[in-house]
Amino acid sequence: MSTPVLDRTAQTEHPVLDVLADRWSPRAYDRHAPIDEAKLASALEAARWSPSAYNLQPWRFVVARRGSELHARVLETLIGFNQTWAGAAAALVVAVAETADADGKPIPHAVYDLGQAVAHLSVQAHHDGLVAHQMSGFAPGQLRDLLDLEERFVPTTVIALGELGDVSQLPEALQEREVAPRVRRPLAETVIASA
After folding, report:
1. From CA 118, how far away is CA 95, in angstroms rounded?
2. Does residue 150 belong to any structural domain of this protein?
3. Phi and psi of 69, rounded to 5°?
4. What is the CATH classification number for the domain harbouring 118?
5. pTM above 0.85?
6. What is the 3-state secondary structure (H, E, C) of the chain?
7. What residues make up the domain containing 118?
8. Helices 110-127 & 37-48, crossing angle to 10 degrees?
9. In angstroms, rounded to a whole number, what is the distance separating the alpha carbons of residues 107 and 35?
10. Within-domain flag for 9
11. Helix crossing, 140-147 with 69-76: angle to 10°?
């Protein structure tokens, strides 16, 4: 019998789009469902059309599907805590910031622009019924070596992507986190100046 998942809809102070209020970052993935290729393509397409300064599009994505050697090797670069659950995801997507152009000129907004692209990806994925969880707990140097990336390409996050799984399949401590109420700092503490 599966553990029930609480209603994960954010209790916002002001109205937002349903897709934004409903989006969350689960750790329970269906370890048997393959990635839906059409939904994956739509998520990547949403990222492709994200805004960027000067339209430089300083982002790249590496898609590692579960069952592939690449998936297993990307999983090895994650910290132990993330390895306990992320291996069940149908895909691990490495988001890479292009921090300098081919001539070595720095792109100072690269990480910001990549963040926007990942946000677009995650919202589109959620809209289409996939779940996404972004991770900062990984070894960037190890991942760069694995992917044979030039120094100007910086692995910035790894995104677990797939179908929502059974919370009861997670270790007990993670089950508690999965169903805990969602919280955010109040908007009044987030906006530090407004005139």
Report:
1. 7
2. yes
3. -65, -35
4. 3.40.109.10
5. yes
6. CCCCCCCCCCCCCCCCCHHHHHCCCCCCECCCCCCCHHHHHHHHHHHHCCCCHHHCCCEEEEEEECCCHHHHHHHHCECHHHHHHHCCCCEEEEEEEECECCCCCECCCHHHHHHHHHHHHHHHHHHCCCEEEEECCECHHHHHHHHCCCCCEEEEEEEEEECECCHHHCCHHHHHHHHCCCCCCCHHHHCCCCC
7. 28-166
8. 140
9. 33
10. no
11. 160
| Total domains in the fold of the chain | 1
pLDDT in tens, the chain (195 residues): 344 445 789 999 999 999 999 999 999 999 999 999 999 999 999 999 999 999 999 999 999 999 999 999 999 999 999 999 999 999 999 999 999 999 999 999 999 999 999 999 999 999 999 999 999 999 999 999 999 999 999 999 999 999 999 999 999 889 988 988 889 999 999 999 999
How much is the pLDDT for 181?
A: 84
Residue pair 168/176 in contact (Cβ under 8 Å)? The answer is no
The residues, any chain, with a CB within 8 Å of residue 117's CB and separated by 6 or more, are: 47, 48, 50, 52, 57, 59, 95
Asked if residue 12 is part of any domain, the answer here is: no
The alpha carbons of the chain give a radius of gyration, in whole angstroms, of: 17
What is the token pair recorded at 81?
Answer: 């805590």
Q: At 81, which amino acid appears?
A: F
23 falls within a domain: no
